Amino acid sequence: MVSRSYSNLLELASGESPSFGRMSRRIPRIMTVAGLISDIDDDPAESVCSDPSSSSAQRDRIIIVANQLPLRAQRKTDGSKGWIFSWDENSLLLQLKDGIGDDDIEVIYVGCLKEDIHPNEQDEVSQILLETFKCVPTFLPPDLFSRYYHGFCKQQLWPLFHYMLPLSPDLGGRFNRSLWQAYVSVNKIFADRIMEVINPEDDYVWVHDYHLMVLPTFLRKRFNRVKLGFFLHSPFPSSEIYKTLPIREELLRALLNSDLIGFHTFDYARHFLSCCSRMLGLTYESKRGYIGLEYYGRTVSIKILPVGIHMGQLQSVLSHTETEVKVAELLKQYCDQGRIMLLGVDDMDIFKGISLKLLAMEQLLRQHPEWQGKVVLVQIALPARGRGKDVKEVQAETSSTVKRINETFGRPGYDPVVLIDEPLTFYERIAYYVVAECCLVTAVRDGMNLIPYEYIISRQGNAKLDKLLGLEPTTPKKSMLVVSEFIGCSPSLSGAIRVNPWNIDAVADAMDSAIELAEPEKQLRHEKHYRYVSTHDVGYWARSFLQDLERTCREHVRRRCWGIGFGLSFRVVALDPNFRKLSMEHIVSAYKRTTTRAILLDYDGTLMPQASIDKSPTLKSIDILNSLCRDTNNMVFIVSARSRKTLSEWFSPCEKLGIAAEHGYFLRLKRDAEWETCVPVADCSWKQIAEPVMKLYTETTDGSTIEDKETSLVWSYEDADPDFGSCQAKELLDHLESVLANEPVTVKSGQNTVEVKPQGVSKGLVAKRLLSIMQEKGKSPDFVVCIGDDRSDEDMFEVITSSMAGPSIAPRAEVFACTVGKKPSKAKYYLDDTGEIVRLMQGLASVSAQTVSGHV
Questions:
Q1: Average pLDDT over residues 151-168
Q2: Model confidence over 76-114: pLDDT tens digits?
Q3: Per-residue pLDDT at 731 exceeds 60
Q4: With contact defined as beta carbons under 8 Å apart, do 264 and 447 qualify?
Q5: Residue 232: which of 260, 263, 265 has the closest Cα?
Q6: Strands 204-208 and 135-137
């Protein structure tokens, strides 16, 4: 099927601009002919967006995107060509739709089918799936699918996200760029399929799991305001593991093109945030319980909520007659023989820890001979989702271990371990849950794992099952769980016995405790778990995620958006409509027209890059400042947090340059003038209290330093570990605020700094002082430019902006408050970096140089 959305499969990955098909303003809600979009209009003036008049009558719609559609497919058996499709009730995506339970919300699915469909049949199948199931199939050539799924997803991403590094060719797949290109290609095809049905202004898109991590970039590039959520169902590894991935930044930036990113646990979210901090220099903050990352003016929200199970489906299966029959059969096979069943249900893969569980069972029988002949471990081994040598090795190791244990501890009519490795129906699995005294989940790493949740609900049972089990209707239910610390559901199961699966002795002891625990204790634990699992089901999870997605996207309409960057480095800048880039032509024109000018410049991060090692001004900067100062129409000021000694030395060649040091505490109008203070002379006895505290944090934070200025103290952690430095800075801020509570000082955090300075001192004072000096001389400025990069400069912007209505600035003056970088600010303008600021100053200096030489 041909997509009208992108003309070249890898345009975005290669950094080229995509050429889009021309579409009308109104995109159909559903395709009428498979693979084609109707209402094609040849008017190039129309852009792709929704028609407001038509969308109000439409239902809310969610497009759910995942690697696989929630469908089963099989060939017709009557000899005719064609396929029979049905819903896969075990699919989380289908349960998610059912869990939302809102008839006003329409759900469309985009994904692959499990079966290969011949190209000749694809159009017909697309039509059937869309009309009957509201599913949009993504058809991939077998070779491309194999390289994308079995190659990049299963051999590279999946092992790495489960903490397996490719230290040798046998341990996970080494990075292969051709497989990465296949991954990007498939994500691009998924984007094309979404384009065919999306109404970008109205629809919500919810992307699932690591198979589609770069999809957000493709969608964001096409529709800057797309409402996009992403949920990762696997673990997210620590930064030490993740940063070994050669395409680490591409994946992070792609995920950040989502509006909301969901994780099962705080650990996974914390690792993601740490990677964003260490690799992209981004910081996050929590506002009223919501965690957000500021990314080019957009707030990317982080959601932490484990997925739940479908209560209705599970209770329905528990009520089936075949479930009751199977339960009765198992009771006869185990309980009637005096056996206690321990149950394990795991995929047959290397991370599920099946062999560790078997070794713990062997240890239990060895250390507690009284359980021999009584305790049986039933291990249900579900088919592995991947394929390869590692799966075969797990199968071989499991079989040999089971054989060894049964030969050692078995006796006629008793096998201590029962391995079930053929596929079971869902009701059969549920029957095992009902009968098992304890469920064991000992995975060494797993994103979530819903087996414990299913077990708890199954043990709650129903009236018919109670009768089979010989329980009175009023008898409290019981269940026991032994779960690995390394699985996503572990934090939510506080009544489970948590174990380190690598510690065989500890797991064996946990199994013994689970059997021996007093009945009332088992009942209390079960009640606590049942209360949580029954209220935090899949519907609760889905509704909560969508509610947060809707909240996060509310600001879209109020922002100006445009895209920057090439290829997978693409991102969208979202800014207030009144915040715009400072135009060189605009400011130079205003500069030429005006005669009384005030120029206030921050230094670090404005004229000098923050990352620069040598912080002293360059000869070029000195020449520019001198050119500006020679113009008698100008009053030029450097406003810095640095000490007056340092600034005096650095700018000694600038005779007419005004300097404000230590955030404006000290001020000098020109080189030969006396220093004056903007506030009364400070008593610095507080330093005797603050300095020992700062020294303590310096000793415990490698890479941190203290700068002792005349009136302030600064603790800097620019060269420290970013996470630890930030953590220590918060502690230091609290500590200093506590010990200096009665001193006339303020404690403030800046960019990689914590500073203590006298109360009332701010860069805003410098702006006020400069404007008042000019007013006293009868020269109220008709041109003001103020440029800075951090929080301390916001005080200057506020003063400059508020003064526009007062007498200190000439009526109809040209005022330019400008920050460095696109970020929330009180300034009206921005420039991207220090390079642009130096070029701007150079442009103004050249105008002044021409004016001065003209007068000569």
A1: 90
A2: 877 677 899 999 988 999 999 988 877 778 999 999 999
A3: yes
A4: yes
A5: 263
A6: unpaired
